Amino acid sequence: MNRKVYSQARPFLKWAGGKTQLLLQLEKRLPPQILDDGVISRYVEPFLGGGALFFYLKARYQVEESFLLDANPELIRAYQVIQNDHRHLMEILKGMEDEHLGMTEEQRKNNYYHIRDAYNRQKLKDGGEGYSSDRINQTAYLIFLNKTGYNGLFRLNKSGEYNVPFGRYLNPAICDEANLLLVHEALQNTELICADFSRAGEFIKKGALVYMDPPYRPLNRTSYFTDYSARGFDEEDQKRLARFYRDMDQRESYLLLSNSDPKNEDPEDEFFDELYGGYHIDRVDAKRNINSDKRGRGIINELIIRNY
Ligand SMILES: C[S@@+](CC[C@H](N)C(=O)[O-])C[C@H]1O[C@@H](n2cnc3c(N)ncnc32)[C@H](O)[C@@H]1O
Question: I want to staple 283 with a disulfide (CB 3.0 to 4.6 A). Which of 61, 175, 192, 301 is the partner?
Fold first, then answer.
């Protein structure tokens, strides 16, 4: 069959823990039936982030319906804006890009902090819940900040403010129209939900492919990373997720989960081996790039866990 369903969209936000480096390793481990017929009747992703695997699969498999969740309201809202109002969003972003690129370095820096303030004011005011067309501006700000901020990552401080400093780029592609169009297309037949991962249970049924990529359990104290949300994801959440995984396993769905391997730091650490005992646990090479210190970079093992 013809596998080429869409041209491939790429994640429209650079997201910490993005899985672009792991795509081939994940694809190799898809259920044989999906690899054979190229059809995914239902795809559920409870920790969506930048959606690297979702976009990859959409371009190569026939994905009939998708349910994408993330606890970050700003992120889900940005997806919804691209799903419903991409033309308007692109118009605003194009205007922002033209203005920004016409500025001197000093002006760009001021412009960045001005937009960051506007974004945080709006964010704190409306809490980011729900969706309406007036959220388009806020999404344009988010994309702008992601393309022009230092390291281009989304990060919040403890009071929930976006606090990434200005990054120096020669020619940042703030409005990548071609990709936004592809993202818009890929988001058809897709439900986007802002919720804790446990809500995904509503959509998980026999035959569904479920990909879970939770925030990492920190490899060491210096790489501690809680910045997707002010609240974070602690060890108790990792255990809660493992219970959820076992529950969902009863439904004859295909469960694929990735996480960092604590054995990189401490070969005796059996945390995930115990939590996911009885399932297939593979350790694969992955490049990660979210740490600023050199030690955390380079090839390290990632866990891929399957119930099939
Ligand atoms: C490792 S990232 C996912 C990265 C994604 N696979 C990609 O390719 O970009 C984890 C995501 O989980 C979200 N998250 C954190 N706590 C959550 C929770 N309790 N329920 C659902 N999502 C949560 C974060 O907002 C973040 O986007």
Answer: 301
